[in-house]
Amino acid sequence: VQLVESGGGLVQAGGSLRLSCAASGIFFRFIAMAWFRQAPGNQRELVATITGLGNTNYTDSVKGRFTISRDNAKNTVYLQMNSLKPEDTAIYYCAARHGYYCSDYSYLYDYWGRGTQVTVSS
Predict the structure, then answer these.
(1) SS3 61
(2) Residue 106 CB partners (closer than 8 Å, separation 6+)
(3) Contact 45/105 with Cβ under 8 angstroms?
(4) Quick check: 19 and 111 in contact, CB under 8 A?
(5) What is the pLDDT of residues 4-26, one digit of tens each?
(6) Contact, 23 vs 1, CB < 8 A?
(7) How far is 47 from 60, CA to CA, in rounded Å?
(8) CB of 13 closer than 8 Å to CB of 122
(9) pLDDT at residue 85 above 90?
């Protein structure tokens, strides 16, 4: 199983980025997916989750700004990030979990990507 993130970069506050995570070696439509992030000195935190049927959940700090989606035909999950703030700066990780249900806890995810850096300048 391999998860490969892309789409990170440097953006000014108020700007947008779209992250992608391509999955391989996995029966994607039956996998719950999530985005986590980790800023320097902080613990890894949940950003958003999406079930195989497309049900979504977001951490409060990104609600109304970020949108998680998936394309099961392309084995890819996306994170559209709008109105970015400097506090969104972090390494963003894609994670996959067998089964329908997502989890807020990182230790319950079976597979992880290597991460993509997002830096938001003020």
Answers:
(1) helix
(2) 36, 44, 46, 95
(3) no
(4) no
(5) 999 999 999 999 999 999 999 98
(6) yes
(7) 9
(8) yes
(9) yes
Closest CA to 87 of 109, 110, 65: 65
Show the tokens assigned to 50.
């999406």
Q: What is the mean pLDDT of residues 83-98?
A: 97
Give one DSSP letter per residue of 24-58, joined into a string.
ESS-GGGEEEEEEEE-TTS--EEEEEE-TT--EEE
Looking at residue 73, what DSSP letter applies?
A: T
C-alpha 80/C-alpha 62 separation (Å) is 11
What pLDDT does residue 99 have?
Answer: 84
Asked if 94 contacts 35 with a C-beta cutoff of 8 angstroms, the reply is yes
